[in-house]
Design a protein that fits this description.
Length: 123
């Protein structure tokens, strides 16, 4: 069994290697999402990158506030947990943006009434 001090040190090194901030979790989420759902164009790549990073950081901040996780900042393990939380919050960002833009593209020539009916049927 690894002693807690060396495990914590390894975690701190990993966290620092990821950027030591929320950017680390957001970066990893972006890489995973881009590998799993490859963009079809350079524009889609840029949108995927931006939406995943924003979902990671914004969603992570919302989760921290909602669940009152501010005390985690006082320990290395807590900071690593923040990275995981931020990572998890970023994963659905690209998919949601992609679905929205596909819906908009599909209904490009529809009237606002038709779009409202479609949205109402979906909900």
């Amino acid at each position: 069994m690894t002693d807690p001090a060396s495990g914590g040190a390894a975690g701190a090194v990993a966290f620092k290697a990821m950027g030591g901030t929320a950017a680390g979790g957001a970066t990893l989420a972006t890489i995973v999402v881009m590998l799993m759902t490859p963009p079809r164009s350079k524009r889609e790549w840029a949108v995927g990158l931006i939406s995943t990073v924003v979902a990671s950081i914004g969603g992570g901040a919302i989760a921290v506030e909602h669940f009152g996780l501010h005390d985690w900042v006082h320990s290395t393990i807590g900071l690593l947990a923040f990275g995981g939380l931020i990572f998890g919050c970023g994963l659905p960002g690209w998919a949601i943006v992609r679905w929205i833009f596909n819906f908009i593209d599909k209904n490009r020539d529809a009237s606002i009434d038709d779009v409202a009916k479609d949205v109402k049927e979906m909900l």
